[in-house]
Amino acid sequence: MDQLRFRFAPSPNGRLHLGHAYSALLNWRMARQTGGKFLIRIEDIDVLRCSPALAQAALDDLEWLGLVSDEPVLFQSRHLPDYRLAQNRLRDKGLLYPCFCSRQDIALGAKDGKRDPEGQPIYPGTCKRLTEGERERLAATIPHAWRIDMAAAVAEVGKPLIFHEESTGREELADPSGWGDVVLARKDIGTSYHIAVVVDDARQAITHVVRGRDLYAATGIHRILQELLGFPESRYHHHRLIGDAAGRKLAKRAGDRSLAGLSAAGVTPHDIRRTFGL
């Protein structure tokens, strides 16, 4: 069997917390137990919220935990043209269309109450109904996102999308349709998490994607993109989420138990590993 490859891929839009530590340590342990490689990727495509200082802080926090990448760290901000190439491939297949709607437009148009797995209104397809001429005229003057025509994409693939879930040991069905026509290129940064993560998992030959349960539903989007772009399928392991005393998911924006804060308070990497049994 080829060497297994795992990755921990934080977004540097805040300091890492205990939830990140658990995911990173779990990836590292699984890599070491299987003789595989542990890679670190900095997912910093959102230039409005991410910063080089926070990227370095994340690497410092991981080094404090005793975690370093077995290969050079990949910074997504240095590979934006690659994500545009993947988007162009989907556009050439006729699977993307420009969207000029604001969040308010979407909220007003989504009157059927349908929600995606994250609880957001499913896009009502307003811009999909524009003519080619209308799209060209609007695109010339209005910043726009690019959405995938999910129904057309599902038809293009033409088969059920399956993935192996390591946490259950089962083959499970991925359902991208539940997301509707998701954005694959944001108007502000020109790409999206979904397209970037799929491109980079293929680039880095990631065999096992180990991440939190909050990203389980996103596997449907990632699996259909893998099929459309001809990328290999990864195996998945969606682990439990680390919460606070009230059971609330830890969040960077709330400053929840940052690793830097814990270190300053005298907590050691050994303490954290022992807490998680890792």
Tell me what you see in this structure.
The chain is an alpha/beta fold. It has 2 domains: 112 residues, Rossmann fold; 163 residues, Rossmann fold. The chain contains 10 helices and 10 strands. The protein has a 3-stranded parallel β-sheet with strand order 1-2-3. It has a 3-stranded antiparallel β-sheet with strand order 4-5-8. Strands 6-7 form a two-stranded antiparallel sheet. Strand 6 and strand 7 form a beta hairpin. Helix 7 packs across helix 8. The longest helix is centred in the N-terminal third of the chain and has 16 residues. The radius of gyration is 20 Å and the shape is globular. It starts with a strand and ends with a helix. The model has no long low-confidence stretch (mean pLDDT 92).
Show the helix and strand layout.
Elements: E1 5-8, H1 18-33, E2 37-42, H2 52-65, E3 74-75, H3 80-92, E4 96-99, H4 103-109, H5 132-139, E5 145-148, H6 150-157, E6 161-165, E7 170-174, E8 183-185, H7 193-203, E9 208-212, H8 219-229, E10 235-239, H9 259-264, H10 269-276
Parallel strand pairs: 1-2, 2-3, 9-10
Antiparallel strand pairs: 4-5, 5-8, 6-7
Question: Can you describe this structure in just a few lines?
Answer:
This protein has 278 residues and is an alpha/beta fold. The protein is built from ten helices and ten strands.
